[in-house]
Amino acid sequence: MKITRIKAKNYKTYRHLDLDLTTDADRPIILIGGGNGCGKTTLFDAIYGALYGIDFKSKRHFDELYNSGAKLENSNETPTIMLEISFTGNVLGQEIPYILRRTYQMIDGSIRWSVELNMNGNTFRYGINTPATERSMNEATVAKIIAANLPSELSNYFLLD
Fold first, then answer.
1. Are 59 and 106 in contact (CB under 8 A)?
2. Per-residue pLDDT tens for 58-67?
3. Would you tell me how many other CB atoms lie within 10 Å of the CB of residue 66?
4. What per-residue confidence (pLDDT) applies to 102?
5. Cα 152 to Cα 1: distance, rounded to the nearest angstrom
6. Calpha distance 53→101 (Å, rounded)
7. pTM of the entire structure?
8. Secondary structure class of 130 (helix, strand, coil)
């Protein structure tokens, strides 16, 4: 798996993040650095949340992760957190592009969520309102794709200090 882009909307300190992580063959490493409190850990949280989702415990938990600037600017809009990760994976020797998006909304005090995976033009969608059988099938497909493309030692690539 090569992560090529991460997007976050209204997530923690990120109001709108669109970070291109593509690399060149002769320079295959990206370094993320900065002072304390500038968002490095939040970036890695966004990558993890895009891949595996966020397990919101309560409305308060959602409010803690929802960007404070968005609260002020969009007081009349439905509070929405969106995490999206683009990556490529190798399938039968061919590099396949993927885009995985997770969206969370606070509607009438309840958290509504949805997941969409675009795999080279084929789309798998499910969410809180998806019928159980369809949701289970698509959820298993998405989990299988992530597991197949994600090296188990991924944590070795992220050095946090």
1. yes
2. 999 999 999 9
3. 19
4. 98
5. 11
6. 9
7. 0.89
8. coil
